Amino acid sequence: MPRDQFQQNLNTLKEFVIEMGKLSHNAIVDSVQVLKTQDAELAEKIFQGDEEIDKYELKIEKCTTQLIARQNPTAGDMRLVISCFKIAIDLERMSDLAVDISNVAKCMEKEDSEALNNIARMANLCDEMLQQTIKAFETLDEELAKDTASKDDEVDRLFYGTQNLLIDMMIEDKAIISNASHLLLVLRYLERMGDHACNICESIVYMTEGKRVNLN
User: Fold this and answer.
1) Is 160 exposed, middle or buried (0-12, 13-18, 19+ CB in 10 A)?
2) What integer pLDDT is reported at residue 57 of this predicted model?
């Protein structure tokens, strides 16, 4: 494969990752809205969007395989190709978690509580991390990736604080056990989203610096 064609395919691979990131962002934002409103149509939109994200993951897998098989990439190019593949896996899992949140929301009654407000903050933070990781990927900014990963500490703080709050609420009022139990699931899903965002940051650092780091 000529170098110009290889570079063009490499750029296409990066564009696939960026587009996949945008779709995952939409899924996270919409899933929290479904949690607040139990909007069935919006939930269906998330499910359809997840199918589109799965298609992008397959495109990225095919593209990475072809790039490696048809031309022996340089060390830097190989890191980029491998990182794109790993990032796609994390983005797909974040989208799956958004679907999980939507499924939980369908089993809940509407509520307005401190716990739900904390969960919304947690979701916004996860989405902010995702958007910054995509920007860091586009600009090859490893410092932005490292700074973004540090925000997972706040995600974890909200996770443990809200988990304790929900447990206390269930002890005080058994009538809310069902809703609170579902919110505990959502908390766990969001905490995992933060972890996947950190994984993406680690892939960006590997791609740009050639170093494997633990940012989680």
Assistant:
1) exposed
2) 95
pLDDT tens for 123-136 read 999 999 999 999 99
Count of the separate structural domains present in the chain: 1
Domain presence at residue 215: no
The boundaries of the domain holding residue 87 are 3-209
* d(C-alpha 99, C-alpha 26), whole Å: 11
Burial of residue 189 (CB within 10 Å: 0-12, 13-18, 19+) is: buried
- Tell whether 165 is covered by a domain: yes
Q: How confident is the model at residue 2 (pLDDT cuts 50, 70, 90)?
A: low
Residue 193 lies in a domain: yes
Q: Do the domain assignments include residue 214?
A: no
Taking residues 105-110, what's their average pLDDT?
Answer: 83
CATH number of the domain that 150 lies in?
1.20.58.220
Q: What is the C-alpha to C-alpha distance for residues 216 and 200, in angstroms, rounded to an integer?
A: 10
The residues near 20 (Cβ < 8 Å, ≥ 6 apart) are 53, 56, 57, 60, 88, 91, 92
Are the beta carbons of 121 and 158 closer than 8 angstroms? Answer: yes
Which percentage of the chain shows pLDDT scores above 90? 76
